[in-house]
Amino acid sequence: MNLEKLRSMREDAGYSQEVIAKKLNITKSTYSRKENGKLPISLDEARVLKTVLSLSKAQIMDIFFNQNVSLK
């Protein structure tokens, strides 16, 4: 998951973590932990994020299905 990209897209759209948390019906603290990778983002939450942030399919794929995997 590319959470830095998610954060950037949220900020570019002009939304605070608090606003996004309200859209997801969770606390700002919980959303912050999700955006920082400490809690998972559910499929339903991803759908809400797609709608709220007006993300394209390609952007969703870039955020949630990042192919940058180490082969070590």
Describe it.
This protein is mainly alpha-helical and 72 residues long. The protein has one domain (3-62): lambda repressor-like DNA-binding domains (434 Repressor (Amino-terminal Domain)). The protein has 5 helices and no strands. The protein has helices at 3-12, 17-24, 28-35, 43-52, 57-64. Helix 2 (17-24) packs across helix 3 (28-35).
Task: Report a brief summary of the structure.
The chain contains 5 helices and no strands.
State the name of the first-level CATH class: Mainly Alpha
- Our count of helices gives 5
Q: In whole angstroms, how far apart are the ends?
A: 18 Å
At CATH level 3, the topology is 434 Repressor (Amino-terminal Domain)
Largest sheet: none
